[in-house]
């Protein structure tokens, strides 16, 4: 009774004196508890009830795409204050570095895919998936317009709109045909799982057709001529996989076809694997020559028909040569999706190959839209654009000159905001920023260096020459997805306690540190159980040992234990039984 009387008195006090806001009294009576609550904002002194957590409106995040960038974002997002809607025409994530292996049966297609619903089902964040393609982005009204997957029974006729608070565009890119006539009609691409399966069927079909008794030797030679356009990592790896498939498996089943098979790589540049170390490039070209793979450098494709591919060789007087072929795989880089190109025109980003974002992956001119992966490129701000603001921020005593000590106080923020400064110092083998300032001042002691604005501009005038665009690789996309998810996880905290560099043109600090890509190395499988590896620190390894490193790294990067087990099983099956040549 005493506990109940105390509760009544406390309740009456909250009604009579609402200024006792936010005060919570907990009275324990025989193990039970009573709670009294009053809110000063209540106009009549009535009890105000806090809304349940479930009723608090969550921010709607729409993610377009289930590739490397989108899936990495979904995997790392763990802030339950978001309601996430995923939109993609494919309901799975594909481990694309193994697509060349799928083309020849080294790995099965089912082994490298993971359903997107399986990836997100155990997350604390509310995530829903919709199998549809986005065909329009309306940034002004914060809507994306979608239609069902064209492969579904609705035939894409039931269009619908999805609202968002934040939009994450991660839909990747499409193959770049350079508007070459006949490419779309007659060539195979290697961007999706379906592409790899189609190529695999085409290879088997070519050998079956070449085995028909009614064909001439000339026709057999044409049918078994496999042409790869593009000497980048994908084209080179496919050519190597195809060579192993033919020589290890198919010639045993089709012995009469052995003398007719030819594999050709057409590369417009001077070398294949241009993005790799020269040692790897040289080794790859020599190995392919030994293996009988014909590498034609300086060859630009101008037209593709149903039976011939026309090339123009640089330095050959513009003469066009027609090459008979049986199958062509086109692997020459990436282009922009129509929906992205339309969106770029809408926001004034014309004449660009990809969406321009700032260093925080936010689309320029759109505060609530982020873009990552192959569909976007970071537009790194130049130091010389902000040179006056940097000088003013560093010159704390407003003396009109800058000392080494003053500059050192902001150098960490400068290097974080403008990574090209650090790269420039490293490439010029300068120990610290004092060496850079000394270049502009001449033979002056470090402690006595003082620069005016013009001398400061001179010191940093060449820094922006170190700016480079990031490569369109799975590694970059995955790191961007992880970075953006971490930003979303700490969004509220960073609003209160910014952790980024100084805002040189404004007051305060940026909410987050800018995205920084960390290169972890790259592989180029060259066939015959040999792989070229280029790892950080200018470390190059070529041979069988690198192949086993490739196996271990790729197995560890697969998205689930299920796919790891399946891929390792496929590799083991191939070692024991060879590749499957059935046309399924």
TrEMBL record:
Segment forming the signal sequence: none
Enzyme class per UniProt: oxidoreductase
Keyword field: Calcium, FAD, Flavoprotein, Membrane, Metal-binding, Mitochondrion, Mitochondrion inner membrane, NAD, NADP, Oxidoreductase, Peroxisome, Transit peptide
One term under GO cellular component: peroxisome
Membrane topology: Peripheral membrane protein
Catalysed reaction equations from the record: a ubiquinone + NADH + H(+) = a ubiquinol + NAD(+); a quinone + NADH + H(+) = a quinol + NAD(+)
Principal localisation: mitochondrion
Short name of any one Pfam family annotated for the protein: NDH2_C
InterPro entries registered for this protein in UniProt: EF-hand-dom_pair, EF_Hand_1_Ca_BS, EF_hand_dom, FAD/NAD-bd_sf, FAD/NAD-binding_dom, NDH-2, NDH2-like_C
SUPFAM superfamilies: EF-hand, FAD/NAD(P)-binding domain
Gene3D superfamilies: 3.50.50.100
Cofactor: FAD
Protein localization: Mitochondrion inner membrane; Peroxisome
PANTHER family listed in its UniProt record: EXTERNAL NADH-UBIQUINONE OXIDOREDUCTASE 1, MITOCHONDRIAL-RELATED, NADH DEHYDROGENASE
Record-given protein name: NADH:ubiquinone reductase (non-electrogenic)
């Amino acid at each position: 009774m005493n506990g109940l009387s105390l509760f009544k008195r406390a309740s009456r006090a909250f009604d009579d004196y609402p200024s006792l806001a936010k005060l919570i009294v907990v009275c324990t009576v025989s193990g039970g508890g009573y709670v009294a609550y009053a809110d000063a904002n209540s106009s009549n002194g009535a009890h105000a009830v806090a809304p349940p957590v479930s009723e608090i409106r969550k921010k709607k995040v729409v993610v377009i795409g289930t590739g490397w960038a989108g899936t990495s974002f979904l995997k790392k997002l763990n802030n339950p204050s978001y309601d996430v809607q995923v939109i993609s025409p494919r309901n799975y994530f594909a481990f694309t570095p193994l697509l060349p292996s799928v083309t020849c049966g080294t790995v099965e297609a089912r082994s490298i895919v993971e359903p997107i619903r399986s990836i997100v089902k155990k997350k604390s964040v509310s995530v829903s998936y919709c199998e549809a393609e986005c065909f329009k982005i309306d940034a002004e009204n914060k809507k994306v317009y979608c239609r069902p997957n064209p492969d579904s029974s609705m035939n894409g006729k039931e269009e619908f709109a999805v609202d968002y608070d934040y939009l994450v565009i991660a839909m990747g890119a499409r193959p770049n045909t350079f508007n070459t006539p006949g490419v779309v009609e007659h060539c195979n691409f290697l961007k999706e799982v379906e592409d790899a399966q189609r190529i695999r069927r085409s290879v088997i079909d070519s050998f079956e057709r070449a085995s028909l008794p009614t064909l001439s030797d000339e026709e057999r030679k044409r049918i078994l001529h496999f042409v790869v356009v593009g000497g980048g990592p994908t084209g080179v790896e496919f050519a190597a996989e195809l060579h192993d498939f033919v020589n290890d498996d198919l010639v045993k089943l089709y012995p009469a076809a052995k003398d007719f098979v030819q594999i050709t790589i057409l590369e417009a540049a001077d070398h294949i694997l241009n993005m790799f170390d020269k040692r790897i490039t040289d080794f790859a070209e020599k190995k392919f020559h030994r293996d009988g793979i014909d590498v034609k450098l300086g060859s630009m494709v101008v037209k593709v028909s149903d039976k011939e591919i026309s090339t123009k060789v640089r330095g050959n007087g513009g003469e066009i040569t027609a090459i008979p072929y049986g199958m062509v795989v086109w692997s020459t880089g990436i282009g922009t999706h129509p929906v992205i190109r339309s969106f770029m025109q809408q926001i004034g980003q014309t004449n660009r190959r990809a969406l321009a974002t700032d260093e925080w992956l936010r689309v320029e001119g759109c505060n609530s839209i982020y873009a990552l992966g192959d569909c976007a490129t970071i537009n790194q701000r130049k130091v010389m654009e902000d040179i006056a603001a940097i000088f003013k921020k560093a010159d704390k005593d407003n003396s009109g000159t800058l000392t080494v000590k003053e500059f050192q106080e902001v150098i960490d923020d400068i290097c974080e905001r403008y990574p090209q400064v650090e790269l420039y110092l490293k490439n010029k083998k300068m120990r610290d920023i004092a060496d850079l300032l000394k270049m502009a001042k001449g033979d002056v002691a470090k402690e006595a260096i003082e620069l005016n604005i013009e001398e400061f501009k001179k010191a940093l005038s060449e820094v922006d020459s170190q700016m480079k665009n990031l490569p369109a690789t799975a590694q970059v996309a995955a790191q961007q997805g992880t970075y953006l998810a971490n930003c979303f996880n700490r969004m509220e905290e960073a609003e209160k306690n910014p952790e980024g560099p100084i805002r040189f043109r404004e007051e305060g600090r940026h909410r987050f540190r800018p995205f920084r890509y960390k290169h972890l190395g790259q592989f180029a499988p060259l066939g015959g159980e040999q792989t070229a590896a280029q790892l950080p620190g200018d470390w190059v390894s070529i041979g069988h040992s690198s192949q086993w490193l490739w196996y271990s790294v790729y197995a560890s990067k697969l998205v689930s234990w299920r796919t790891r087990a399946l891929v390792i099983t496929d590799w083991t099956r191939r070692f024991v039984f060879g590749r499957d040549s059935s046309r399924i």
